[in-house]
């Protein structure tokens, strides 16, 4: 009876281009989209729109633009993200994380420069998606993410102190954090009590409703109640209508921003910052949605959709658009079935500006400042910060450096330096986890599983060959550990005629480590020593061979037992 030849494991096939970039909306529709699904998405979209309406206007005002541009962003950008995105539940719109960057860009380059930067960031996001770099965004260290998010929260809160208290400053409000605080302190005697009362009421309503009635639309209730109080009692407070002239009753005509080369060069740093933060924020939001639903998003498809959405938002006069964690989580909790919920969210906001825009004119700016104060408070993840500070000094340094640079310098610098510090901390930890372990004399427990009892144990064989040293490298063998491992192995090789190095516990080996072994082998050959490498996996062996670590310079063996000299024959009785 002949046995069938063993079958080789089949490697999983890589997804093709169409599969990677098919929007989730098409996937949902292919599954079968029926009336219950439509109803669930419509109700979820309405719930999200109730949250997005005050947030979009508040974020736009805090970013230094008019409130209508926040609504344009949520409508156009949110619609495109839901139609083309790689997440079932992602809700797009303006995000608090962009307030600092947008405000700085408007101050430096004007509104035209901002729109061009948003448009260019869309092109960059599309490039990131088509180059399939979306999976790499998740490698941003967690302390960096927590640090810059908390720093943005601090900046947002300080930017709203003037509106919360109704202060009258002697001059324009300074932008830098350290210049802003003295100016606000000097203006404290000008506190406007009606403004302070409305902002305090808004915060109290939002906190109270979240605690005692979490399923109620707290944002809508707080904004509606404070607007009604301001109108009924004719309170002398600023509103959207009094400062900005109201909200337009329709979308503006689309037009491309100024694409002159000089302008492109000027705003490119801002565009890169928008793209980087947009990729991080949107993919984090998609991951949150996945964790809440058990679904999986298509990261590269999502980046392409984010890019198209930012280009569309810019063309219609909107600001940066990204996936928003709070609104996406609201969408999931509201029972959304798929991306149509985001479509209904955008259409509901469009219906508002077409039909009920005059109602938005009565919203007090103090109430929107209260909304942003709560948003800023929630961005400072206090539990995560406490955990990271207590966990290790390395995580604490990365977190505090990122937070401090975000507040005192700028977001791009904070992310780059935070990432670099996080990488250094990781390298140090990995290098400490890599060690060289002596296996001479070896213990009997190192025998191969199932070996016969009469077999000569490794330790006896090694003891009979005192010129043989057996060592095992454990952990990732890379540039961070190459120097210490290499020096240890050289000292060992000087004392023995044969050095066996076991690589069975090395999951990864980089070019620096391979070069270290190559140098050790060259030195051993010059001194007449023998170097044997055992247990190397195929990738590790391939890396060694690529750097010249090959016979006759070294000898490869499957295991330590195969590399040891045979035991001498026992003397006859």
TrEMBL record:
**Residue stretches spanning the membrane:** 42-63, 69-86, 114-133, 140-161, 181-207, 219-237, 266-289, 340-357, 363-380, 411-427
Question: Which InterPro entries does this one have?
Answer: SLC26A/SulP_dom, SLC26A/SulP_fam, STAS_dom, STAS_dom_sf
Protein's cellular compartments:
Membrane
- Signal peptide coordinates: none
What is one GO cellular-component annotation here? Answer: membrane
The record ties this protein, via Pfam families, to: STAS, Sulfate_transp
Q: How does it sit in the membrane?
A: Multi-pass membrane protein
Q: Which UniProt keywords apply?
A: Membrane, Transmembrane, Transmembrane helix
Instruction: Tell me the GO BP annotations in alphabetical order.
Output: transmembrane transport
**Residue ranges of domain STAS in the record:** 458-567
Please name the PANTHER family in this protein's record. SULFATE TRANSPORTER
Name listed for the protein in its UniProt record: Sodium-independent anion transporter
**Annotated organism of origin:** Pararhodospirillum oryzae
